[in-house]
Write a structure and sequence with these properties.
The complex is a heterodimer of chains A (310) and B (95). Chain A is mainly alpha-helical and 310 residues long. Chain A has 2 domains: 72 residues; 193 residues, no CATH class. Chain A has 12 helices and 2 strands. Chain A has a two-stranded antiparallel ribbon. In chain A, helix 7 packs across helix 8. The N and C termini of chain A lie far apart (65 Å). Chain B has 95 residues and is mainly alpha-helical. Chain B contains 4 helices and no strands. The chains are: A mainly alpha (310), B mainly alpha (95). At the A-B interface, helix 1, helix 2, helix 3, helix 9 and helix 10 of A face helix 1, helix 2, helix 3 and helix 4 of B.
Chain lengths: 310, 95
Amino acid sequence: MMLLFDIALVAGLLTLAVHVVREPDERSAIIAFLAFGLLLGLAWIRLAAPDVALTEIAIGGGGTGILLLRAEAAVRGRGKHEESVTRPGKLAIAVGCAAISAGLGLAVLSFASPAPTLAPAAAEGLSATGLGNPVTAVLLAYRALDTLLEKVVVLLALIGVWSLAPDAAWGGVPAVRSGEIPQPLAYLARILPPFGVVIGVYMFWVGADAPGGTFQAGTVLAAMWLLVMLAGLRSPPETAGLPLRLALAGGPILFLAIAFLGFAFADGFLAYPKALAKPLILAIEAALTLSVAAALAMLVAGPARRAPTR
Amino acid sequence: MADILAAAAFLILAITLLALLRVLRSRVLAERMMALQLLGTGGTAVLLLLGAASGSPAVIDVALLLTLFAAFACVAFALGMAEPAAETDPAKEQP
């Protein structure tokens, strides 16, 4: 029965992917891409990776879609320039993409079976961290360095986006809200965020012992904040504002501070004292959740458009 | 019992997928947007059935997130309807 289920799921995903590529209207293609992201979450569940499923649904169904739609709205109306890619050009792109897909497929099929795994070793060390979710243990204990760099990369991406602001508007307010706010959107922006914030905090808290964690929680909070800003209920903060900058940098700074304290109180850089491992990890996660939420929301909000009011 | 739940999940998935592909081909933008809402309810049902069939509570959290983001995706529709995101008029901005 599950085989039948998987075949239906894969067939649905492939059909949807082809639909996204073939759709001539950009907005419809983005909407179909959003649906694709949500459906992909189901596939990750079938692959027994609920952590990835949560991230895929949050990023693929929430963040990316809004980012693409805002990008589409920004370039729409800037002159309907004629098709820049010719038919042979399109064909070449299609062949190239197909070759990459086929190569990836071959690579996956040629993996050793059973695949070499560190899972038993990861599960063995779990008790030392006080955590129950091996994915969180990998992210914040075993491979904390990768996570630290990853969060800094998000900040670098944000700096890249901000640097697109005109000189006069530097440090000012991004333009999030579009001209006319439909009534249902304003209603949704009042109803959904209370639920969303509770779900976001739950995602962060449950991450220590079950699938969930910093990134998923941050994405949920960012989506709720964006919803409020898009509906014009709150205007976005000034990008030079101290509270925003503190929220953005707070997570990585706390992470780095605790990492360096590891020299004094534990075995070295990024090592936690055994008794304090879990409280420290939770503190880092809390600060990182806020940082990720602020960074993702500001990434979608875009560069400053209006001069600061100083 | 698990088999029956899995069969129900398959049935709902198949129906949701067929309806999804039909709705996505619609000429009306609002109807295409409804495809996401359809996936929100259908996907949640599939996930809850799968979670019950496999006995893993984490799947229920995924269903929760799917519901939330399917609702959030409505924003996409509102954004799509709005005029190009031009410079906002400072006079109309709320304090």
